[in-house]
């Protein structure tokens, strides 16, 4: 499972993929010229390898903003026209095309917000297959239930003895829907991300404009025992239909708008059957940030792996926190079209899946059914089972926290048949089992180990994604959740440490080292890395007492400084005056310091801002004097929230960079 990290007490959590893209600085500091608008440079370098209006919309850019007024100002700074603002995502249009606009603004000092290309995601179209169908046997009266071989494969009927999904809420983000289909479930709400309307139907008479979405919805939730068609995996769920297709393509801006809508509606499960392997790092970061919000809201996000038969990571399915689903056929083989790889989490039936489709030709009022194949058919299988888990554990529906999402994801990944499904040399382990998911062992917490790991940076975690810089070393200590060292666990040979990539990383004496020449993001030898797939990464497993904590590490440029710009210099400390007894919010360091506190790495052209300290993460230490004479407030994840001095004096809180650099930024609070 790809999971977001948790740092329970002493340190703030770091989520690599929520890393803020590189910001703009055009001044000089300490005799070094700061790099200009690195994000613009990165996007230009990326789209040179792509085809305009095929891989991205040629004259559009997109970015996040809190209001339409803010979006207007950002558009004006780029000399662009704001053409759309929905669900916190803005789309702007450039008269002379995106590439020209980015080149013109490459050295501009007025640009302070990154705009990324409006990348086009592939809707994983159905794949034609000739595999024989194994008929299913069922007691329900739906006439075509026998054509739905997947029910018997994943034990849907046995799961229905416990629940059919009532009370769970599922959002499907897709190309469009025939909402009047006779076999559709209860539709609570619809949303068209393009214009903000509730119209999620086709823009024309073309069946292709809502074929895909209609078929996916039927797999999840087509009604059962209504003497029509077949049945969905969770026929009693409440459905939210989100049209993210504008008639030409599924863009990253539309996908994020759809995710934001589903988060606002507090759904339990999101299904996405689209993606791309050709996004820039900034685009992946933006997408990951939104996925994180969904997981934080208790939502399980499920996505299809892709239909190219390759191991290349697709997004959003490869994002942390997303359940990536491969497809198998009725011959118990990995489908020949299915993508695969370490990043794929689980498999489900995806070949010759019988489900609902819209009418065709002049038969506008006639509901139809067809068989389709693809990982787009496998993903809704898992999404449907996730809905069954929520319905069987109603407390999770009300909880709406990251913990509830992790519980469901862990339950999904532990509820499989354990078989290895192969096609040639490719394989994926484990097909979803609905009965196990509903009637098996009680839900786990998602953090099964009764120990935690403390890194030499100061993070305490039970698993997650972190970064490490080339030439740097991070040491690990087994601790309890309060950060106290467990002596027995740290004795030589007591715990087993292992990594998956020994080319770019080495492991010795409980220390992980990233090798000098490992490819890091955003620069390696002065050349921008074009793709996240090229960046060195490894998985570290720490096993103790028959329990395992898994950490993922990704190589990023070495951090040379932390601080904020003042008079052309990077300052690594700040003094804040306040009254005794006044609570100071530490939740947003940039707001607290009234300045952008950033990490800096070094490129050939000089120092480069590697993102905001708030968004990359940090470990912190409160001085003994500050602890004694004040109140420190942290949340359940260990993020520093506030400090209240109860006595006059100067108190220090030290923030430490993650990744092994040990660079520090000091906040001095002077209470008067």
Care to describe what's here?
The protein is of the alpha+beta class. The protein is 21% helix and 31% strand. It has 15 helices and 41 strands. The strands form eleven sheets. It has a seven-stranded parallel beta sheet with strand order 8-9-7-11-13-14-15, with helices on both faces. Strands 3, 4, 5, 6, 10 and 12 form a six-stranded antiparallel beta sheet that branches. The longest helix has 18 residues, at 375-392.
Helical segment tally? 15
* Count of DSSP strands: 41
Globally, the shape reads globular
> What fraction of the residues are assigned to beta strands by DSSP?
25-35%
Poorly predicted regions are 3-36, 130-136, 523-532
Q: Average pLDDT value?
A: 82
Q: Decide which structural class fits the backbone.
A: alpha+beta
> What's the story with the biggest beta sheet?
7 strands, parallel
Rg value: 25 Å
> What distance separates the N and C termini?
50 Å
Helix content: 10-25%
What is the strand arrangement across the widest sheet?
8-9-7-11-13-14-15
């Amino acid at each position: 499972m790809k999971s977001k990290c948790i740092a329970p007490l002493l340190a703030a959590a770091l989520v690599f993929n929520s890393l803020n893209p590189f910001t703009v600085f055009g001044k000089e500091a300490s005799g070094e010229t700061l790099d200009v608008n690195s994000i613009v440079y990165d996007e230009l370098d990326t789209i040179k390898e792509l085809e305009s209006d095929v891989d991205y919309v040629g004259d559009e850019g997109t970015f996040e903003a809190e209001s339409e007024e803010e979006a207007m100002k950002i558009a004006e700074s780029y000399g662009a026209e704001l053409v759309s603002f929905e669900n916190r995502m803005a789309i702007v249009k450039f008269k002379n095309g995106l590439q020209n606009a980015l080149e013109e603004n490459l050295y501009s000092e007025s640009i302070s917000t990154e705009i990324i290309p409006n990348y086009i995601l592939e809707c994983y179209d159905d794949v034609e297959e000739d595999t024989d169908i194994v008929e299913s046997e069922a007691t329900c009266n739906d006439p075509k239930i026998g054509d739905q071989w997947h029910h018997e494969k994943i034990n849907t009927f046995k799961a229905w003895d416990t629940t059919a999904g009532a009370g769970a809420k599922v959002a499907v983000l897709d190309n469009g829907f025939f909402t009047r289909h006779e076999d559709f479930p209860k539709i609570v709400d619809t949303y068209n991300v393009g214009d903000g309307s509730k119209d999620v139907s086709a823009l024309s008479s073309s069946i292709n404009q809502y074929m895909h979405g209609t078929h996916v919805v039927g797999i999840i939730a087509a009604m059962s025992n209504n003497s029509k068609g077949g049945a969905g995996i969770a026929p009693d769920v409440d459905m939210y239909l989100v049209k993210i297709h504008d008639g030409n393509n599924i863009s990253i801006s539309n996908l994020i708008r759809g995710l934001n809508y589903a988060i606002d509606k507090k759904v339990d499960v999101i299904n996405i059957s689209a993606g791309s392997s050709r996004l820039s790092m900034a685009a992946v970061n933006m997408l990951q940030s939104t996925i994180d919000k969904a997981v934080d809201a208790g939502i399980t996000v499920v996505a299809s792996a892709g239909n190219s038969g390759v191991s290349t990571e697709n997004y959003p399915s490869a994002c942390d926190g997303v359940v990536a689903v491969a497809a198998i056929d009725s011959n118990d083989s990995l489908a020949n079209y299915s993508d695969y790889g370490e990043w794929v989490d689980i498999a489900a039936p995806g070949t010759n899946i019988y489900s609902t489709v819209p009418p065709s030709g002049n038969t506008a009022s006639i509901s139809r059914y067809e068989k389709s194949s693809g990982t787009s058919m496998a993903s809704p299988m898992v999404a449907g089972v996730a809905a069954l888990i929520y319905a069987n554990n109603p407390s999770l529906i009300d909880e709406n926290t990251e913990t509830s999402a992790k519980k469901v994801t862990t339950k999904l990944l532990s509820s499989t048949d354990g078989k290895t499904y192969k096609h040639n040399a490719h394989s994926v382990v484990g097909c979803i089992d609905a009965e196990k998911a509903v009637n098996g062992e009680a839900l786990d917490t998602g953090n099964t180990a009764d120990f935690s790991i403390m890194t030499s940076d100061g993070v305490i975690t039970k698993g997650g994604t972190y970064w490490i810089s080339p030439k740097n070393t991070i040491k690990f200590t087994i601790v309890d959740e309060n950060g106290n060292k467990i002596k027995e666990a740290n004795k030589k040979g007591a715990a087993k440490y292992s990594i998956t990539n020994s080319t770019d990383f080495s492991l010795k004496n409980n220390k992980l080292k990233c090798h000098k020449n490992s490819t890091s993001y955003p620069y390696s030898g002065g050349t921008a890395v074009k793709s996240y797939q090229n960046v060195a990464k490894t998985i570290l497993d720490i096993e103790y007492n028959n329990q395992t904590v898994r950490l993922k590490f990704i190589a990023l440029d070495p951090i040379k400084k932390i601080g904020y710009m003042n008079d052309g210099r990077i300052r690594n400390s700040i003094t804040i005056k306040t009254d005794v007894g006044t609570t100071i919010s530490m939740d947003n360091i940039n707001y607290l310091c009234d300045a952008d506190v950033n990490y800096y790495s070094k490129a050939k052209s000089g120092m480069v801002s590697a993102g905001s300290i708030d968004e990359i993460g940090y470990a912190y230490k409160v001085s003994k004097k500050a602890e004694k004479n004040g109140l420190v407030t942290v949340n359940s994840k260990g993020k520093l929230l506030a400090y209240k001095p109860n006595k006059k004096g100067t108190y220090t809180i030290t923030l430490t960079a993650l990744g092994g650099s040990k660079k520090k930024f000091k906040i001095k609070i002077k209470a008067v």
